[in-house]
Design brief:
The protein is an alpha+beta fold. Helix content is 36%, strand content 19%.
Length: 94
Amino acid sequence: MTPEGAVKAKAKKLLTELGYYFFMPPANGFGRAGIPDIVGCKLNGCLFALECKAGKNKPTALQERELQRINAAGGIALVINEENVNNLKELLNA
């Protein structure tokens, strides 16, 4: 498993434990570029989106644009990595 794959797996495990609805949009070239890795809904109905990165990797300009659009619309858009994935519950509730 890649380092980014490990971040995604940990995030999915935590989201499942929290009982949140989520899915991973396929990155196959048929959708809009920059869509986050994980999109879901918290128990209170708030949309969230997670861009998973490993190491010092940063979101691309297209990914940043999508994260900003989600936040501007009232959702929660976050970049998670090995350093903050364990704090996902707190990050989503901040």
